[in-house]
Design brief:
Blueprint (H helix, E strand, L loop, with lengths): L10 E6 L4 E5 L5 E5 L19 H4 L6 H20 L3 H7 L12
Antiparallel strand pairs: 1-2, 2-3
Length: 106
Amino acid sequence: MVRRTKWLTARATKVDWPNSELHYATNAGERGTLKFDHLVIACGSVVDLSAIPGLAAYAYPLKTLGDATALGNDLIGRLEEVAVQTAPEERERLLTVVVIGGGWLY
């Protein structure tokens, strides 16, 4: 699924924006630099659905392709329900989506 992809587990230590370089250090202490055309900074790697009451029962984590598929299917189902719903309050409830987390912007 991820041909032409290089996987590296490391900690980013510096972003050199003018030169489009990411400096990193591995857990083994190795240091290196990667050149980039586009850099996506995604904060965190652990999903904690216990942080907010009700989150585990109603939220969708979004870390895997399977997670995205489940979320997409639920949203499609809601749109199908809204199409036949006549009560404005119920339509609003079905069309309300809340995003919790999502990282920060740099």
